[in-house]
Amino acid sequence: MTETFEIVAKTLHGLEDVLAEELRQLGAQNIRPGKRMVAFEGDKRLLYAANLKLRTALRILKPVLKFQAQDADEVYAHMQQFDWSAILSPTNTFAIDPVVYSETFRHSRYVSYRAKDAIADFFVEKYGKRPSVRLHNPDILINIHISHQDVTVSLDSSGESLHKRGYRVAQTEAPLNEVLAAGIILKTGWQDDCDLIDPMCGSGTLVIEAALIAANIAPGIYRDRFAFQSWSDYDTELFDELYQDSSEEREPEHKIYGSDILPEAIRIAQKNVDRSGLGKYIKLQVLPMQQHPKPEAPFVLITNPPYGERLGLRSGEDLYAMIGERLKHNFGSGKAWILAHKTEHFNSIGLKPMYKEELMNGALHCELRGYELFEGTFSEHRAEQRQKGQTATIHREKKERSERPRPANYTRPPQRENKRFEDKKNRTSYTSKERGRYHEDEGKFATSSPAMKRSENGDREKSFRGERKPTLQKTRAGGTLDKRAYEPGFYRRGKTEEKPVISRTRKRIGDYLSGKVSQTTEMARLQRIRKARKQETDWPEDRKKAIYDGEDTDLDQKRRSPKKTHREIQIIRNEDTNQ
Q1: Mapping DSSP to helix (H, G, I), strand (E, B) and coil, where does residue 41 land?
Q2: In the predicted structure, residue 350 carries a pLDDT above the cut 90
Q3: 119, 133, 369, 467: which could join 353 in a potential S-S bond, CB 3.0 to 4.6 Å?
Q4: How many CB atoms lie within 10 A of CB 502?
Q5: Model's pTM, two decimal places?
Q6: Is the alpha carbon torsion for 222, 225, 227, 228 positive or negative?
Q7: Which domains, ranges and CATH numbers included, belong to the chain?
Q8: Minimal CA–CA distance to 59: which of 100, 4, 98, 11?
Q9: Structure confidence by residue, pLDDT tens digits, 433-481
């Protein structure tokens, strides 16, 4: 009987369910999906097959040590006590790949330094020499995952990330991740049951992954090396058997079409298709989506339109509006799946989605939406589907809600008892007068009832002492009713602010701005005011009054300055107001 052990497959956010289904088809046991990972149990054969055949996995890890630590020094202590001689030798090279999600451990690089020191010190104490560190293509790649205080040390059996299939020889700007492309296709449910179209194929990632799925070809056959091939217990015959097995491959029945508006993108995509050896299943051409012909056979459209870096300075709203218009009026009946970054892009499409799910494309939060395409109106399409016994749209199945777990010693808190009106039969009914309400016909408040006094349980109740007269109506200005409250604009000026009075100077300026007086007249008036303010201490009161009122015609004729521009008058008026 072969030995089974725990294995962890890393993936992208949103693809955990697809990866778990792939593992079930491979025969994995005790599958436990998590956050960006799926844990399962298997043997060495399953470890090799997972690296070779899984389409939505990034790395395959084999945990070897688990413990809890508060800081990097405790990580060093636990790792130095572990027997590394069964995994490494002094002649091997190794590297540390830390992944830290913790408030206690702030520096992942420092954790990798301490882990490296622990392994080196272990070999120095036991053999007198230590293995070397190599950052690129080491013999043994050690993954350290820290979640809060839980530390898991694993052996990375993949080496380079599994999204690097090996068929990509060239790429366009911001290409789609191969793992994400395969996950999107598997989420749509496409299994070579109709033609597949990508009208914005770019470097051809989606169409190549679709061809691999249609032909059931393992995505790892293009890779040159896996990290487990350097392990001391590597089984060459077992891996060769899995690598050479092509019994599950099949011949695709439908075509895969890829097009793009850029000739350079099609040239790059053709290179990648030729490298994959799937050219007979994929047809590429330079074709804008606006000119895409109507498909003759049933189809599914899956595309990743430009956004972010690929969109550049182009208008995203116009691009996605064009996509929605073409899907509605040109492609006929079918299904379309679009991956985009911003919600505004989807709003520009203008179609109602039948499916939504959040995904991660690198560091970008994206969303995958599915649309059901049909000719005519939605009501006509729904009536036609009902006649066929089908539903008009596909909705995601709602997950069954499990009961929230509670502690074993949990007891429901006792409900609060209403002691005041526990016995409603003995409750006395009182009239409105007895409850202390004011009556306009009598002009006074009634005396309080017994129920309004302090009750037996200590509740305080309001009661009125004597008679109370109604107060006069108050206004926002305070005090009794104010007639000014009915004046227009009173409340906008404040509670006590009076109506503002326009000064003589402001009125004259307003006349000038409205064109009632000329520039020369306004300039002369401002000059008189400035001179009067400078010499007002020496002039008699009648003289100053004559100047301010414009009655001193002699001074006006003698001191009149040449005609000034509007800008000069504005400067003088600003100086006047600042004083």
Answers
A1: strand
A2: no
A3: 369
A4: 8
A5: 0.66
A6: positive
A7: 5-156 (3.30.2130.30), 178-242+252-378 (3.40.50.150)
A8: 11
A9: 444 444 445 554 444 444 444 444 455 544 445 555 544 444 444 444 4
